[in-house]
Amino acid sequence: MPEFENPPATVDVPGARVTRIVAVDAARHTVWRCLTEPELLARWLGDIAAFPEGVAVGATGRFAWTGEVVLAARVTALEPESRVEFDWAEGILSDRASTVELTLRDIDGSTQVHLVESGFPLEGDDAAKRESLRALAAGWTVELDELVELAEQLEAASI
Questions:
Q1: How does pLDDT run across 105-142, given as a tens digit for each residue?
Q2: pTM higher than 0.85, yes or no?
Q3: Is 5 helix (H, G, I), strand (E, B) or coil?
Q4: For residues 47 and 64, is the Cβ–Cβ distance under 8 A?
Q5: How far is residue 120 CA from its own chain's centroid?
Q6: 48-51 CB contacts, 8 Å cutoff, 24+ apart
Q7: Beta-carbon neighbour count of residue 158 at 10 Å?
Q8: Strand pairing class (48-50; 60-64)
């Protein structure tokens, strides 16, 4: 089983976005399940991932971190086993929502996950914007590491 060294998320201050690419030693369908099944989403992205209508285009839901923030979300695009995109914002969906896009590709016997979160309504000077983006990047570094771990555990259990 290859062990990948995944770099942390990066920030693009002028573009107001965070990106990260990770390699997962699991089949694409296993990683896809982790992105689209609410009970699996809650195991790596927040403590709660509630989508009462399921994860489908137009579906709304929420992500929550215990004792922290609650984000309202709406699925805006879904290409099975390829791409999922959603808007999310603290509290309720508004013009302050950012967009999260997760794209999957097969690379050298693994699944590559490419994350881009963009559209942040950042305030302040460049230093303040950079600091906000760095905090978001640190969060995505932790969350995507948890995704990798979960998907690889599920894959190992299915063999």
A1: 999 889 999 999 999 888 888 888 889 999 999 999 99
A2: yes
A3: coil
A4: yes
A5: 15
A6: 51/75
A7: 10
A8: antiparallel
